[in-house]
Amino acid sequence: MKIVFHEKYYNSEYAMDPAASVGRLDGIMKKILDNKDKDQFEIIIPKPATEEDILRAHGERHYQYIKDISLLYELASLAAGGAILAAEEAYKGTPSFAVIRPPGHHASADSCWGFCYFNNMSISLLKLYSEKKIKSAFILDFDLHTGDGNINILTHRADDFKVKILNPDSGSNKKYIKEVREYMENLEDIDIFAASAGFDQGIQDWGSLLYPEDYTELGNLMKEYSEKLCNGRRYAILEGGYNHDVIGDNVYAFCQGFK
What we know:
The chain is α/β, with parallel strands linked by helices.
């Protein structure tokens, strides 16, 4: 399994918000690098997304607004590039997880909120679509907060790119997993699976809902149904998750099912 990561993602100076807080990624990378089976992960380093890549998902005015803030643009374009690299690896058949900052699923074509700036998911999928590699995708967005940017950019499109998105909303962990499984059972004609992987639904995070073993099961479901429908093509992009003490365990648990 590939882990997409760049040392610059540790930089928390681009914004003053919980998604940019110091130490947020340390627990994730420590868990990945220090575990006894660390050979199961390969760290790969991304390059920034190009202007052309970003403008497939965003309007010129929004792009210029972010570009005018130099550090924010440097890190947001690098995060989008990380998502692209994860998508490219997934297309080749290698499960990939992009440990990137800043997140992206609340960024719409001409606006953004919720600690997001560029929509990493949309940029990565539209890159594959522009290269005629895919014509459809499924996104499991298991962040606590619905990824409105993903929905706004990727659904009801004028072209023939078809994207289905599930933001589960069940009120118990068992019903949540059941909702995901039942939705996946009804999928067809999907070229790639992707996850907007937010961990703020964790039992010790804002959502107080999902245990580490639930994240493992979400990873298992992504693996099972991507193998059934699209030769195992799957990748995940880090979104939310704010308890630094547990986010590493939750990400690692997800990867154990996903890999």
